[in-house]
Amino acid sequence: MKLLTCPLNGPRNISEFTYGGEYHPMPDHQQVAAREWAEHVFFHDNAAGVVIEWWCHSASSYWFLAERNTISDQILRTFPADEIFTQRIDFEPAPEPTINATPTAGESQ
Amino acid sequence: MPFGLLKYGLNSEYPAQHHFSPATELKKHYDVVIIGAGGHGTGIAYHLAKYHGITNVAVLEKSYLGSGNTARNTAVIRSNYLTEEGVTFYRESVKLWQDLSNEFNYNVMMENRGQLTLAHSDAAIRSFRWRAEVNQHMGVRSELIDRQQIAEMVPNLNMSEDSRFPIMAGLWHADGATARHDAVAWGYAKGACERGVELHQLTEVEDIEVTGGRVTAVKTNRGRIECGCVVQAVAGASSVVAKMAGIPLPIHSYPLQAMVTQPYKPILTPHVSSPHLHVYTHQTSRGEFVIGGGSDPYPLYNTRATLDQRESLTAAALELFPFLAQARMLRQWAGTTDMTPDYSPIMGLSPVENYYLDAGWGTWGFKATPICGKTMAELVATKKVPEIIKPFELERFYKFEQINEAGATAASH
């Protein structure tokens, strides 16, 4: 049995957890170009070595971060997300769609 | 024959036939450097040498020939995919497989056993109908079969209606096959080496020099080599190698574990898979049952085996074939699957002009070996992307034009 230490629930069998992907900052989806957005969504660092990644304790739905070595499978450290996210992140809201607006060039209705 | 063997055994010189070129010094320059000597890498070298007359080629391998995922996959050959691009690509590969032993005069022990995928739900039956229609339309033999046909085809399969997930129907793929996986790399490497290609084992690429958008040289543990172009064919390490050339890839690398039982007399002809139970199995020509499943639950660059995966594979295999409860397991191992978001490979051009990608081979690389050798060699020789692999370009992720084959895997990953 491999153990993972949940910052909230303590050491638990790793089968109780769900892997949630690499930690990387999200670009502002309202401002970013399609190409960069594609890179954010699809592309991964997929590094061989120590990485920071999201994990979720499925039974309690608690999300946290873990530092793990992807070659040795050693879990070096787990910590709550508020170590990184010290304040709330808000993106600018999308502009309200205007009704009966004339379509811009190249845009189909 | 016994005397011949005895004579050979007593001979002090062992007149063995050398299949591959002996280890030599690395040259200063090669026209083509292929990273990775698995089925794909050696296949590309073979096609370059035989069909395009390009023989100033080095195949670099950090370990030994065919030691990566070529040796670790479960040797399934099939073309019953779901998208037009996918079916066309794998169909052409299956055709090449049929004549592969003759092609390089090396027995790959090709066996056309067929493949049976099981449905345990109405939703699965609907998707099988869809796949059967797509396949038939494109000249691939796939059909929906009922419980009675399944029971006749695989008499040892547990057809009980009282099991947790009773078998409701099946997708029968007569073109499904299996082959000796190591022999594919050996056959291609032999054919390539006979034509002047150099195979360099224990030669690890440590860095790739890119100047002005072009690769100029690769640095290895045995020295620096200048090169006209580079092809990377390193399933299981695609991201790591591409990163040396500064190319990000949409890949996560997960281990995929499989195991094999003691040998039995021949009792199972086709390959049987159950996406619902996350398991697939076939009986090898040695009589062993090879049992494979989905990828591990999280990414890892390690081929260790886990008890968790062994338990879940065993539970699923026993649900299909209860007699396996008596079986002893001989081995359990893992390969590394480079999973792409759409479960299709990444082939062709890269942002670096003379650097070609043969990557993202997740769980579908072995069956594609011959078509990759052929098409990637054509790309390197002509600098034009063959039509059949155009849809698999890296650029598709930037254009949001993925080729979704997630529904056509043998086990959900």
Task: Provide the fold topology.
The complex is a heterodimer of chains A (about 110) and B (about 425).
Chain A: E1 3-6, E2 10-13, E3 17-22, H1 34-42, E4 50-57, E5 62-69, E6 75-80
Antiparallel strand pairs in A: 1-2, 3-4, 4-5, 5-6
Chain B: H1 2-10, E1 29-35, H2 39-51, E2 57-60, H3 69-72, H4 84-98, H5 100-104, E3 115-119, H6 122-137, E4 142-145, H7 147-153, E5 169-173, H8 181-194, E6 198-200, E7 205-211, E8 214-220, E9 223-232, H9 238-244, E10 252-263, E11 271-274, E12 279-283, E13 288-295, H10 307-320, E14 329-339, E15 346-348, E16 355-359, H11 369-382
Parallel strand pairs in B: 1-2, 1-9, 2-6, 3-11, 9-16
Antiparallel strand pairs in B: 3-5, 4-5, 7-8, 8-9, 10-13, 10-14, 11-12, 12-13, 15-16
Helix pairs in contact in B: 2-8, 2-11, 4-11
Number of helices of chain A: 1
Using the coordinates above, name the CATH class of the largest domain in chain B.
Answer: Alpha Beta
Based on DSSP secondary structure assignment, what is the total number of beta strands of chain B? Answer: 16
Largest sheet descriptor of chain A: 4 strands, antiparallel
Describe this structure in words.
The complex is a heterodimer of chains A (109) and B (413). With 109 residues, chain A is mainly beta. Chain A has one domain: 2-Layer Sandwich (Folate-binding fold). Chain A contains 1 helix and 6 strands. In chain A, the strands form 2 sheets. A 4-stranded antiparallel beta sheet of chain A has the order 3-4-5-6, with no helix packed on it. In chain A, strands 1-2 form a two-stranded antiparallel sheet. In chain A, strand 1 and strand 2 form a beta hairpin. Chain A is elongated and about 60 Å long. The model of chain A has no long low-confidence stretch (mean pLDDT 89). Chain B has 413 residues and is of the alpha/beta class. Helix content of chain B is 29%, strand content 24%. In chain B, strands 1, 2, 6, 7, 8, 9, 15 and 16 form an 8-stranded mixed beta sheet that branches. In chain B, helix 2 packs across helix 11. The N and C termini of chain B lie far apart (48 Å). The mean pLDDT of chain B is 95. The chains are: A mainly beta (109), B alpha/beta (413). The interface between A and B is medium-sized, with 20 and 24 residues.
